[in-house]
Amino acid sequence: MGHTICIIPGDGIGPEVATAARRVIDASGVSIDWVELPAGAGAVEKFGEVLPDDTVRAIEAHRVALKGPVTTPIGGGFTSVNVGLRKRLNLYAAVRPVRSLPGVKTRYEDVDLVVVRENTEGLYSGLENEITAGVVQSLKIATRTACERIARYAFNYCHERGRKRVTVFHKANILKKSDGLFLTCAREVRDAMANGVEYEELIIDNGCMQLVRDPTRFDVVLMENLYGDIVSDLCAGLVGGLGVVPGANIGDGCAVFEAVHGSAPDIAGQNLANPLALIMSGVMMLNHLGETGAATRIRDAYDAVLAEGNPAELTRDIGGTGGTSTFADALIKRLG
Ligand code: NAI
User: Fold this and answer.
1) pTM exceeds cut of 0.90
2) Whose CA is nearest to atom 5 of ligand 1?
3) Which residue from 61, 123, 217, 330 has the highest number of Cβ atoms inside 10 Å of its Cβ?
4) Which residues line ligand 1 (CB under 6 A)?
C-alpha cells in the first residue's frame, strides 16, 4: 500500500537535500505519493507567509512530513517556522539519534546515543518583551503536562528499543523552579516507569564536559528545549558533523522528520551539502510508517557507501570530493 507524505523542501540547502532524499527513498521500492508544501523564507516571497495555513493543514491531514531546513532571521524579522510548526502540530518530542558511522573518522568510536528534547516550551515559547529601554525579558515556560509527557516519551523509547539508561541534563541548581519542575517530573516518571531502565541526572555544564570526554557512556539523554537544541549540535560534532545526524519531531497526531542542521547558507546552491542527515531522517520516517524493509535497505546502502569510502562518492564535510547528487546517486546504485 502506498503512503501520502508531505515534503517541505525549505530554504538554503533544503531543496538540494530534499531532492536527494526523495530520490533515495523512491529508489528503496516503497510507494510514496509526495505532496510538496511551502514553508520558510522562500514561502514568504511566493505566498506572503512563512508558514501558510495550508501547509499545516496538509500535514495534519496526511500526518507525516519530511522537512528540509528553513532560514530564521537573526535578532528580528519573522519568528521561527520550526518553532511554529512544532507548537501548532504539538510535536512535543524531538528525537535525535547520534551514532558513529562506518568510514566517518572522528575522535570517538562506538557512539550510540539519542537526544530526546522537549520541543514545545522553555525559552522557545517566544515570550519576550522590552520592559523599559535597555531592559528586556524572555520567559522560560515549564508546565507539568509537557515535562511529564517528554519524560514518559524517553522511558517508553527505552522500553521499545532496549535502551538501558536515561540521563537528564538540567540546570536546576540555578533555575530552581523551571528546571526544578523538569527534574521533579522526570523523577516521578522514573518511579512509575523505569522498570529496569537506569536513571541519572547531570547538571548540564558537567554533562557537556562528560559528553566530549566519553560520549560512549551515554544512552538516552533527556532535556528541555534550548539545552536540547544546543546539545544536539554538540553531539553531531562527535560523530562527523551536522551532515550525518537525523531527527524526528513526534506528536500524538503527526510526525515531522528533519535533520538537525539548518539551511547552511554558506554552502547553499553549490551541490556541496551532505544529504545523509535528511536521508537518515527519511529512514526514521520509513520505520515510523512500518516500512522497515525499505528503511533497512537504505541504511545498508549508506553504511556500505560510507564504509567503502570512495572520495568521489562522498561529500566534502566527511572527507570526500563529491557532491549532494553524487552521494545520492551512489546510494541509488546500491539500492538498484
Ligand atoms: P547550519 O546548521 O545551517 O550550518 C552550520 C554549519 O554546518 C555550516 O558551516 C554549514 O555549512 C554546515 N552544514 C550544515 N548542514 C550541512 C550539511 N547537510 N552538509 C554539510 N555541511 C552542513 O546552522 P546556521 O548556519 O547556524 O544556521 C543557518 C540557518 O538555518 C539559520 O537561519 C537558522 O535559523 C536555520 N536553522 C534551521 C533549522 C531547521 O530548519 N530545522 C535548524 C537549525 C538552524
Assistant:
1) yes
2) 264
3) 330
4) 13, 17, 69-72, 82, 242-243, 258, 261-267, 273-274, 277, 317
